[in-house]
Design goal:
The complex is a heterodimer of chains A (397) and B (177). Helices cover 45% and strands 14% of the residues of chain A. Chain A is an alpha/beta fold and 397 residues long. Chain A has two domains: 305 residues, Zn peptidases (Aminopeptidase, 3-Layer(aba) Sandwich); 53 residues, no CATH class. In chain A, strands 1-2-4-3-5-10-6-7 form an eight-stranded mixed sheet, with helices on both faces. In chain A, strands 8-9 form a two-stranded antiparallel ribbon. Chain B is mainly alpha-helical. In chain B, helix 5 packs antiparallel against helix 6. The model of chain B has no long low-confidence stretch (mean pLDDT 86). Classes of the chains: A alpha/beta (397), B mainly alpha (177).
Chain lengths: 397, 177
Amino acid sequence: MKRIILIISVLLLSALFVFSGVCFAETDESADTRYQSSQAYQLTKYICENYPNRRAGLNTSVPPQNSVQEYLKGELADFGLITKYKGFQIGDNTFGFNIEARLDKGYDKQIIIGAHYDSEGQGANDNAAGVAALLMIAQELTSKQDKLNCNVVFVLFDGEELGLYGSQNYVREMSSEERDNTLVMVNIDSIANGDNLYLWCENKRTGLADLFIGQSNGAIAEKPYAKGTFNLRDVFGYGYYEFAQNSDHSSFRVQGIPIAFLFSGTYDLDPWHYAENSDVNKQVLNSSDDTFENLDKNNGAKFVEKIDAVVSTVIGTVLNGDFVSIAENQRSQLVNLNLWYNVWWPRLIVFVLFVVLVILAVFYYRKLQKKSILGTAEVKNNKVFETPEAEDIFTFK
Amino acid sequence: MFSKLKSNYNLSNILIRVLFVLTYVFMRWQDYLGSAYIMDLSAITGGYISGTAKLLLALFSAAFMGTVLMFLLPLLVNIILNIARFYSIPRAEYCLLAHLYCTIGFFVCGALNLINIITPIFLVWGSVIFPFIVTVGCFISFYLATAKLYFNDVTTVHYFKHMMIVFIVIVIGAVIL
């Protein structure tokens, strides 16, 4: 009997050992590839592989058919949102299509959450990842719409890479009342491939930035002020050029609408600059190397973590009870981007000071003139440098 | 130290010229860094954002311009003195003083430009106001020093008038515009 119990015990232990080994092996393997089953991964991959060419103006049919536009509109409509195309002209025979989806809860105030879907090449980081994040946010907010304190408008912009055509056109078509009622425009662009995730609201500390950063649990940092900024007037109306302005939020910000721009990259390489990634081999922005394959190969689970961090941060911020009051206050904290303030006021002040100085100089000149009448005209032979003695020149010491 | 420098013109000349270039780099490095980066972004890579540091390129460019300016300054000073018909001034010494006051001005302006690190708003306002403050300060102190050294009560009036014309041209051309 004892022998039988011993044999059974040995067999059981062996079986347990083998089974646990298999289990651990499976766990290790799944830990490496688990991120690939995530929604962020699947959505980004789907957009890149099924719509690898999303350059603005390619689709000439109105409304666009069998295209990325149709897919994205369909996805947003499936969440229960009211969707529509907002077409605009880019060139003579080129058209772009913004896709708008509204989550209308009957409030006066609204926020706009946007990402551009057009790209140069496959555009995995720029901006399939951003579009994936927006779709995930839309799905989540729709399911939690009872907790919202304002309306939400999701906009997928076209023509960003050609010069922010989609967002500029979108803002132009907004009524002044709609602009006034927009609390903040959240822009998601190129969030997956950089070293760090950044938020840019304004070039100074604001309550809205604090709220976003607080909701991110350390995943997102505020863009360092003045870094990546150059003394060069730009086309957006800023008095300076900054490597955080070149996306769709700029079209809203120059119209006085507060913005929150989420992007990835690094400002740590040298004292002043922005770069997509600290590793030169991973810098693929706006190139044919910005593919899903490279994004996955270079970042692995990290790019999914970044997308998830952006999604949870935006949702956490928008659903926060203080969001509306903080966002309303943000408008009063905006830096003045007026061209007069930025460019002409300092010059005008200097010019006034200059005129005052010239007037004072004229008085001083008259005083000198009077002094010269009574003064002496003696020859002055003063010198700063002493004339060396002949002895010093010709004697070698 | 100063007495040694006063008795050694060549040493002072070399020292001030080197400092002139260095302080010019200190004053303008941010502008050159921005230019180098934007040139790289738009012209060379066609929109591809490079992470390669352009600090060395910017410093070399600024040093090159500083050196050019260092050689141009005596030429300009001589032209102005000839136009104003000031022939009795020790030109070499006068040019060295011009270099010295420019050097001091560049250093002060560079120090003020460091405020740009705080916010871009200073970048815009500072780029106009800082050079103006420094130009005024340097011009006044340079005028007072040279007038006391080389001009009497009668010639000072003439000298002041020409200094004002140069000042107006520099402020309108280089600072306001």
